[in-house]
Amino acid sequence: MIKPNPGTTVCAAFLAAEERFSARPFLRAPAIVGPAHDSAHGFASCKAIEFTYASARREAERLNAGYQSLGINRGQRVALAFDSRLDVYLHLLALNALGASIVPLNMAGSDSEILFVLDHSDARLITGAAEHLERLHRLAGKEKNIRVATVPTTVEAHGLAHPACEPETEVALLYTSGTTGKPKGCMLSNDYFLTMGREYNRLGKLCTIDSTDRLMTPLPPNHMNALSTSFMAMMLCGGCVIQLDRFHPASWWQTLRDEAATVIHYLGVMPAILLQLQPQGDEDFSSQVKFGFGAGSDPRHQQAFESRFGFPLIEAWAMTETGGAAMIVAHEEPRLPGQRCIGRPASEMELRIVDESDQDVAPGQAGELLVRRRSDQPRKGFFSGYYKDADATEDGWRGGWWHTGDVVRQDTDGNVFFVDRRKNIIRRSGENIAAVEVEAALLPQDAVGNCAVTAVPDEMRGDEVFAFVVTAGAAPPSETLARQIFDASRESLSYFKTPGWIAFIDQLPLTASQKISRAEVKKLAREHVESGLAFDLREWKTRKTGSRP
User: How does strand 367-373 pair with strand 349-354?
Assistant: First the structure.
């Protein structure tokens, strides 16, 4: 068999890494995850599972042979229902060696959501954990062109079968979270995965990593952060991925100690939750943890977190569509913590900040972020496109730039600051209001446990600011409480940014990936206004002189 070029495919890169780091740990599930990581490997509940590079190769070889026996070959897709188990990565390697692609399923989703992915993806086979098989068989019964099977691992393996695949060959089809409309299937190639790992490894400075690093992540591998970012970053440097089944706040720090993790990946809500916990012994991790890597931490919490726990939270920006080809990371000083700074663009990428007509805005002004690779192939390393939606792909690339839908600004030193998603910008009487800015003004209030801000139509002003509030403490929802929250918001917001409507809700609508469903929030807000379930505070939105705006 011809030895594959390690720069061509994910599996080839893994084989090259296995030659160098054979005995080093590669994939690990801590004991804390318990039954959630039990699989066909015969491990008892609540025992850690670990694969070295060598044992991961043997397991991938067995799976590779098993898939061949099931007739899976190049160009086909297999849907995986393993939640956050290590199986996802092993099956990825086995299928990538065959030139096939994975479609990770979020089994926390509804039947209709999973059926949409199965139907849209054209997957030929579904495999998954034992507890999902009954459900998978039921769902597969509604899809005529798909079958459910457990991949046999007793078929004699003869190395990793590895046809001549190209950088453009698909590795995974990942579906966006669907916060606005139906999810889109993002086709991610070998080049996408390899670019992500290489860009992470070349960051250096505060994000320097090597083969001794152990990266702990609670993020699910049905999203690009775990599946491509942490997985590829560790593989290419010989490090170890420590995969949790989910975020366990109460045991987070003990698990971090027990696993000797040196890097963590986070989402924005995690620092806030960890800061609320009571001190648990020595909280200084400065001698153990190099950095946390993530996005969306509340700017009020970033400095407090770093001071308390002793390591930096490195804010970064990327999206499934851009991968590492246009990743922005605040990995060197000055990081400007607490200002929503996401760093300065790397020399390998180009960016523009534009208005709604795609015209460049003045320096320091907010606008939509457009990105591309600085090369004669501006799409190199990006996603290959939306499956079955070439029009949406080309619209995203209109004018030769990828339109991110994110609103940012850039200072004279080149630092980029995240403002909000363009869809979360409220346009009131000609003023642009970021929903996250209003949320940041409401959250510190004692009466506010959580909140979500959106736009609702207003006959006079185009949009009006609407806030859903989940109350904290004993204060019952009432018009009086709504007015108190409104009045307190005036301390930090201009009058026009304050909520014109406030409604109380038991819990915010979330997507299957536990993000606020902005589409559902907007829909519910309109319903609350139309049905009289929201408190109208618009008459109080006056300038400090008392005149009506």
Answer: antiparallel
Q: Which of 352, 380, 410 is the last residue in one of the domains?
A: 410
Residue type, 516: I
How many other C-beta atoms can be found within 10 angstroms of the C-beta atom of residue 346? Answer: 18
**What local confidence, expressed as pLDDT, does residue 547 receive?**
31
Extract the tokens encoding 426.
């409220």
Domain membership flag for residue 422: no
Mean pLDDT by 10 residues, the chain (549 residues): 70 96 98 51 63 97 96 96 97 96 90 89 96 94 86 88 83 76 88 97 97 96 95 98 93 96 91 87 94 89 94 96 97 95 96 94 95 96 97 96 95 94 78 83 91 89 91 87 94 87 94 78 95 95 48
Domain coverage including residue 103: 10-38+47-410
**Cβ of 212: how many Cβ atoms within 10 Å?**
12
pLDDT recorded at residue 179: 41
DSSP states of 59-118 as a string?
A: HHHHHHHHHHHTT--TT-EEEEE-TTSTHHHHHHHHHHHHT-EEEE--TTS-HHHHHHHH
Residue at token pair 């998954």: 128
Q: What share of the chain is helix, strand, coil (3-state, %, to 5)?
A: 30, 25, 45
Of 471, 462, 477, nearest to 432 (Cα)? 462
Do 373 and 454 sit in the same domain of this protein? no
Do 136 and 171 belong together in one domain? yes
Model confidence pLDDT, tens digit, residues 92-138: 999 999 999 999 998 887 788 889 899 999 999 999 999 999 999 99
Q: Which residues contact 525 (CB under 8 A, 6 or more apart)?
A: 454, 455, 456, 466, 468, 501, 503, 534
* CB 300, CB 308: distance < 8 Å: no
Contacts of 394 (CB under 8 A, 6+ apart): none
| Three-state SS at 425 | strand
Same domain, 401 and 433: no
Q: Which residue has the tokens 């307190």?
A: 488
What is 471-494 written as a DSSP string? E-TTPPP-HHHHHHHHHHHTTTS-
Sign of CA dihedral 436, 312, 271, 27: positive
- Considering the domain architecture, whether residues 441 and 396 belong to the same structural domain is answered as no
Q: What is the pLDDT of residue 177?
A: 58
CATH number, residue 222 = 3.40.50.12780
Provide the CATH number for the domain around residue 522.
3.30.300.30
* Residue 442 domain flag: yes
Residue 296 included in any domain:
yes
Tokens of 486: 């409104």
